[in-house]
Design a protein that fits this description.
By secondary structure, the chain is of the alpha+beta class. The protein has helices spanning about 10-25, 40-50, 85-95, 110-120; strands spanning about 25-35, 55-60, 65-70, 75-80, 100-105, 130, 135-140, 150-155. The chain has one domain (about 10-155): Roll (2,3-Dihydroxybiphenyl 1,2-Dioxygenase, domain 1). About 30% of the residues lie in helices and about 30% in strands.
């Protein structure tokens, strides 16, 4: 089925997300939040979630610093740009701080990328790349997902 012809209003977007969660993807792996100041973001979310940041990591390929929180099975990733012309800095300049992406855990990122391409979704990478938290990642363009940046992520086998 090719989804590229569909107009995604809010209801269809929610249906798509539920389909991805319950039919294809294992779970929501994390929600990515763009912040302009990682230290301030960490302080805010430690207070809000009543838990400590468990990992701070730089992802050179994306030119970002990340901080992770976990509460129950849910994870939050704060993402801050390392430079003023980085993707996250541009995102914040255009849209402000806030939710940047929803990441889904998958068993086989290569198969999921192929499946989504065959369905007409636009991927931002041809091959997965190394992301934060020991993951291989690939982003799905928000123009093909009703305005939501979707990240596929798979644990890197040890």
């Amino acid at each position: 089925m090719n989804f590229s012809f569909l107009y995604f209003d809010r209801i269809n977007l929610y249906r798509l997300i539920l389909y991805l969660i319950f039919e294809i993807m294992n779970k929501i792996e994390h929600i990515g939040i763009a912040v302009s100041d990682l230290k301030k973001g960490i302080t805010l979310y430690e207070s809000l979630l009543q838990t400590s940041c468990y990992k701070i990591e730089t992802v050179e390929s994306e030119q970002v610093d990340t901080a992770f929180f976990q509460t129950g099975e849910s994870k939050i990733e704060l993402v801050a740009s390392k430079n003023a012309d980085g993707v996250i800095a541009k995102y914040i300049e255009k849209r402000g701080e806030g939710i940047h992406h929803i990441a889904f855990d998958v068993d086989d990122i290569y198969a999921e990328m192929e499946r989504l391409k065959n369905l007409g979704f636009t991927l931002l990478q041809e091959t997965p790349k190394r992301g934060a938290d020991n993951k291989l990642i690939c982003f799905v363009h928000p123009k093909s997902t009703g305005g939501v940046l979707i990240e596929l992520c798979m644990n890197i086998p040890e």
